[in-house]
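Example record

One chain of 123 residues, shown exactly as stored in the release files.
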Amino acid sequence: MVITKENRAIADIIFSSLNNRELSLLSNHLEENAYFDFPGTRLIKGRKKILQFFKILFRKYPQLSFKVEGSIAEGEQVCVLWSNEGITSKGNPYKNQGITVVRISEEKICYISDYFKNTKFPD
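Predicted structure tokens for this chain:
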């Protein structure tokens, strides 16, 4: 039986990891063969490549913080509504809002997919 409350907590780890720039916490909760579907990229396959993606994101946005606005969970899936803001590596302000769909299997994140309002990435 899937426990929705626990799945929400696991999904929230993604945003805690990003806000704290601490990927080891996320790594511990990612399935080895997880998938990440991020707009504008090919499907990212595997824990190592997902973590590499986030390291690149940290370089592109030296300041970036997420605020979880709410979540909806059913079974193995959690949809997290978020907003973020930060500064790009070129000093430009950045803001966005979106939803991240997270699928959890056996207490591990196996799939992440992002959908967001502003799909234009600043320089």
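Notes: The beta strands are 30-37, 44-45, 63-74, 77-87, 93-105, 108-116.
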